[in-house]
């Protein structure tokens, strides 16, 4: 991957920008906001997508495939994501021409300008929490600008330009870019050590979160339940720290969580209580909602209207998203790609599957994470799912590592009758369909392209 140099100067004026990887959910949203500003936009990605087609319809010049010739002659900046390779021809040509090459976080920093920024960080739950905050603010009458890492289902977009001075973003800790922003309110959902290929050590990872939080000009909202978040909170020097979660000492405390079907719960703050329910399942989403409400409280809203507003959140794309039902089998997709996320996704599914079984189709993401965490993945999958089909590793930006395949995960199961490693996708789809029965849930898990196997699974299940 290309490590961003966040010290590079950002052009004061940008009238034309080219996006490498423009089809991704985050990058396409960012490109759309540049269009909102009247900036000429071009870009490329390795395959076509609905997001690219939508940008094209708005006037962007988009290309399928990466080629140095895609770069326009008149250009103020090139924006890239960490997912591209250093050998990308457009990246190299921009460097040769002396065009400023900005990491996506730098482009976002430029867009934010001097507006009041809410930054959502954490190893898990960022996209959902950001979606809840945006939904809540809009429902309560505010009109924030926002950039999320996934599409907010009720809005059909991952970003939007609002009229208020508020700007809400999902801030990425994976490469340290969350330290770039001038944050007013920082929300930390959890601090679960990951991305140590960038940070180098667990201690550096935690210190990064401390720096991010202490730099917030207005307030820090942080989990009271997550051990890593508690460790970070203990190191903070910030004068305004608001905690949320199920812990008795939480400033915004969650109680009475009922997970059968859509989750319901009660929030308590400053001597007041309010009960609510979400349309998305899982105890973790009750806690995410508490964090979102806590952010709204720091922005000046009251508990009851804040909770009523956050209740309107309807989920984000690729978070427990139903794709179809065939032969009585429901097929879902979820972005979960870390053991903690997989655990939460399957725990939520367990609350709504009833008497059916959970069949996980797991695509390990990156060779480094698979090598470091294959035992943890196996433990979670074996404890939460009734059966697991493991695909091969989605390498993303990484080169293959000898001996690191999906078989590492499947081989770590104690009960080999409950798991099958199938590298071929068609065979995996057919095997999944062969073991599924009416009432079961099939759930694809991973942040790579595992969702693309869903049509094959549905076809293998036959007609309803």
From TrEMBL:
UniProt entry keywords in alphabetical sequence: ATP-binding, Cell cycle, Cell division, Cell shape, Cell wall biogenesis/degradation, Cytoplasm, Ligase, Nucleotide-binding, Peptidoglycan synthesis
Assigned EC number: 6.3.2.8
NCBIfam families (UniProt xref): murC (TIGR01082)
Protein's pathway: Cell wall biogenesis; peptidoglycan biosynthesis
Protein name: UDP-N-acetylmuramate--L-alanine ligase
A single MF term (Gene Ontology): UDP-N-acetylmuramate-L-alanine ligase activity
Binding site for ATP: 122-128
UniProt KW Zinc keyword: no
Family: Belongs to the MurCDEF family.
Reactions that this protein is recorded to catalyse: UDP-N-acetyl-alpha-D-muramate + L-alanine + ATP = UDP-N-acetyl-alpha-D-muramoyl-L-alanine + ADP + phosphate + H(+)
Domain Mur ligase central as annotated: residue spans: 120-295
Gene: murC
Chain ranges of the Mur ligase N-terminal catalytic domain: 18-113
Start and end residues of each Mur ligase C-terminal domain: 318-448
HAMAP family in UniProt: MurC
Compartments where found: Cytoplasm
Keyword Oxidoreductase attributed: no
Function: Cell wall formation.
Highest taxon of the lineage: Bacteria
SUPFAM superfamilies in the record: MurCD N-terminal domain, MurD-like peptide ligases, catalytic domain, MurD-like peptide ligases, peptide-binding domain
